[in-house]
Amino acid sequence: MYKKQTIGIDIDATLTEAYYWIPWANAHFNRNLTPEDMVDYEIHKVLSISEERYLAFYEQYGEAMHATSRIRPEAPEILKQLTDNHHLHYITARHPKMQHVTEEWLSYYQVPVDGLHLLGSHHKVEKAHELKCNLFIEDRYENALAIAESGIDVLLMDCYYNQDRPLPSNVKRVTNWHQVKEFIDLMKKTAA
Ligand SMILES: [Mg+2]
After folding, report:
1. E-assigned strand segments in 73-180
2. CA of 92 relative to ligand 1 center, distance in Å
3. pTM, two decimal places
4. Where does the pLDDT of residue 1 fall: very low under 50, low under 70, confident under 90, or very high at 90 and above?
5. Which residues sit opposite 155 in a β-bridge?
6. What pLDDT digit, counting tens, does each position of 69-100 carry?
7. Ligand 1 centroid, distance to 93 Cα (angstroms)
8. Ligand 1 mean position to 65 CA, how many Å?
9. Domains, the chain, ranges and CATH?
10. Could you tell me the distance, in angstroms and rounded to a whole number, from the CA of residue 140 to the centre of ligand 1?
């Protein structure tokens, strides 16, 4: 019998659309950035501004950006299908003060949630092991590598800033939630 597995799921750019902050940054910094410009995960580098200026921007608009971000197509439907055989834990680098807006957002999109963990940092390996994750879904390359190296399989959600980088054998690139489901179905078949 297939034992219930645990999936760790990142939120920003994995569950949400990847570049939802661009219009906000364009308006605030008077830029004209497009998703194709996002070749670095670090937003302040893409904007060529100091990290402090970016953090001030995030302090001002972060909550509103999170509240109005859209979910990736098919994600709610696929996550609902996964609940039969999986525990779903959302593990994000968002600061704990974003707990409320994050809960509201997940609830708005009727996303099934077994646990929500706002770490306030990119160090997700420990939490992933504490929760006994069998699989992790993530968009940040460095996180994917660290989690994979610790022995957990990773699906890397394709974004401009994580392309053209070597992936270890237990990191697979996916471009949408339909592919996430395909991979999980395949894992299940192989384990059966
Ligand atoms: Mg992310």
Report:
1. 86-92, 115-118, 135-138, 153-157, 171-174
2. 7
3. 0.96
4. low
5. 137, 172
6. 999 999 999 999 999 999 999 999 999 999 99
7. 8
8. 14
9. 5-17+72-191 (3.40.50.1000), 22-68 (no CATH)
10. 6
